[in-house]
Amino acid sequence: MNLEIINDDHLLPAEREDWIRKLVEFAAAKLELPAETEMSISLITDDKIREINREYRDKDRVTDVISFAIEDDEADEWPNFRELEDELDIPRNIGDLFIAPGHVAEQAKTYEHSFDREFGYTVVHGFLHLNGYDHIEPADEQVMIKLQEEILDAYGLKR
């Protein structure tokens, strides 16, 4: 997995970046993604994620994670990226996650989870969105949440 982590404001210690990388690589192996698959995770403030949420999702509130999947089915005006990747022999890029560690810490307290469990949940949840999983329909939610829990449990981040 070719993962770029952007932590310019040092919202998490540098060693946490290795933890994130290992979790994403573990989840990518579970989904059997090619090793050269690309994505990014930007760690941002609550104010910045609220701004992004307002601008792109019309929701004026802080959230834990926002995912921008490159292969989103709703973007009909975009080219077929999988075909282009194959044609040009370039790695697949699944998209970008924006995560607000401050909000994740608040949620950990609210749900009485450790920060590791809540942050892991957030990373895996967003990662699954980048890979086409969703939870809008109950049947899709069941599939996504089951896979999410399998990954977290296998990684050692049990409830």
TrEMBL record:
<feature type="binding site">
    <location>
        <position position="129"/>
    </location>
    <ligand>
        <name>Zn(2+)</name>
    </ligand>
</feature>
<comment type="function">
    <text>Single strand-specific metallo-endoribonuclease involved in late-stage 70S ribosome quality control and in maturation of the 3' terminus of the 16S rRNA.</text>
</comment>
<keyword id="KW-0255">Endonuclease</keyword>
<keyword id="KW-0698">rRNA processing</keyword>
<dbReference type="InterPro" id="IPR002036">
    <property type="entry name" value="YbeY"/>
</dbReference>
<keyword id="KW-0540">Nuclease</keyword>
<keyword id="KW-0862">Zinc</keyword>
<feature type="binding site">
    <location>
        <position position="135"/>
    </location>
    <ligand>
        <name>Zn(2+)</name>
    </ligand>
</feature>
<dbReference type="Pfam" id="PF02130">
    <property type="entry name" value="YbeY"/>
</dbReference>
<protein>
    <recommendedName>
        <fullName>Endoribonuclease YbeY</fullName>
        <ecNumber>3.1.-.-</ecNumber>
    </recommendedName>
</protein>
<keyword id="KW-0378">Hydrolase</keyword>
<feature type="binding site">
    <location>
        <position position="125"/>
    </location>
    <ligand>
        <name>Zn(2+)</name>
    </ligand>
</feature>
<keyword id="KW-0479">Metal-binding</keyword>
<keyword id="KW-0690">Ribosome biogenesis</keyword>
<dbReference type="InterPro" id="IPR020549">
    <property type="entry name" value="YbeY_CS"/>
</dbReference>
<keyword id="KW-0963">Cytoplasm</keyword>
<comment type="similarity">
    <text>Belongs to the endoribonuclease YbeY family.</text>
</comment>
<dbReference type="InterPro" id="IPR023091">
    <property type="entry name" value="MetalPrtase_cat_dom_sf_prd"/>
</dbReference>
